[in-house]
Write a structure and sequence with these properties.
It is found in: Membrane. With about 325 residues, the protein is mostly beta strands. It is about 0% helix and about 55% strand.
């Protein structure tokens, strides 16, 4: 029996011979049987037993036997044990395996054309790899180079250069060229943000405005590697008053003057008269100043705005009577 299935004599790979002898004195019979079996590597775990049957008793089954089957190596397999992606500076561990019994214990590793022999082990490690270590790796049997296995190993890398970077100061109306250069082992994903808000594309500045000032960040990534760069753009300009207006307060007793200007750094304001309820706002280079006055006579009021680059001023007439 093989794995509890009966074997049949085929005269070639399975030959069974049986003999029966009879004791002349006791007339008892003795039966013996021999099996000649041509094994294959599939029989590594096969269990062989013999069974004796008799009409007057239960079947008798021998204990199972498992035989060591020796066979030559037919297949070599190379594995990359290091997790993907492999980045510059990582280690690459290669494992060479082969079938056969007994299995091989020593191998040749072909490291991009350079042979390395390892004995009594099946692992080889390359430490601190660089992009130059990308390529074809092989392993084979010591005495049979043609029986080999191949793996392609890619070492991931990402080189990025951004211009400009750091703090950038430009004048309003000027241009600014932003250049991003990248070199990578795979197609890189690029994301731009301004003041943490996502942009659709790489920023371009042909005629700078105050609203374009801000913190620009560039995130470049491939699987397993990420690079982040930034530049902070400051747009400066001489203050310019865009409008100087007046209107009556809601209670009709005061005059509210509004002076709107552009400039960077943020301009300081100087009014030619005293007033109350001074208000000021400054957003993206635009400044708004408000002054509440109670004129006792007709006045000419001057709004003057100043920063380190220069100044501008504008006058407005304010009448004491209601209007």
């Amino acid at each position: 029996m093989k794995n509890n299935q009966p074997l049949m004599d085929d005269g070639k790979t399975i030959i069974i011979k049986s003999t029966v002898t009879k004791d002349p004195a006791t007339h008892l019979s003795s039966t013996s049987s021999s099996l000649q079996y041509t094994a294959s590597k599939e029989d590594m775990a096969s269990q062989f037993t013999c069974m004796a049957k008799h009409v007057l008793g239960p079947d008798q089954v021998s204990s199972a036997e498992i035989f060591p089957i020796h066979y030559p190596t037919e297949k070599v397999s190379l594995q990359v044990l290091s997790p993907s992606p492999i980045r510059e500076g990582d280690n690459i561990t290669l494992k060479c395996q082969a079938d056969g019994n007994p299995p091989p214990t020593s191998f040749n590793f072909n490291i991009k054309g350079q042979r390395v022999t390892v004995t009594n082990k099946d692992i080889y490690t390359i430490t601190g790899v660089t992009r130059a270590d990308s390529g074809v790796y092989k392993c084979s049997l010591l005495n049979k180079d043609e029986m080999e296995s191949t793996q392609i190993v890619t070492v991931s890398f990402l080189d990025v250069s951004l211009s400009p970077k750091g703090n950038v100061v430009k004048k309003v109306g000027e241009s600014l060229v932003v250049s991003l250069e990248k070199n990578s082992s795979a197609e890189a994903k690029v994301t731009w943000t301004k003041d943490k808000r996502t942009l659709d594309k790489l920023p371009s500045f042909s005629n700078l405005t105050y609203s374009e000032a801000g913190l620009y960040e560039c995130d470049v990534s491939i699987e397993g590697i990420r690079r982040t760069f930034f530049f902070k753009l400051t747009v400066e300009g001489t203050p310019k008053i865009r409008s100087l207006t007046k209107h009556r307060s809601t209670d009709g007793k005061h005059k509210v003057l509004t002076c709107e200007a552009e400039g960077s750094p943020q301009p300081d304001v100087l009014w030619s008269v005293n007033g109350t309820n001074d208000q000021m706002s400054y957003v993206q280079g635009k400044a708004t100043y408000k002054l509440t006055v109670v004129p006792s006579k007709n006045l000419t009021v001057t709004c003057e705005v100043t920063n380190k680059l220069g100044s501008d001023k504008k006058d407005i007439s304010v009448f004491s009577r209601k209007y």
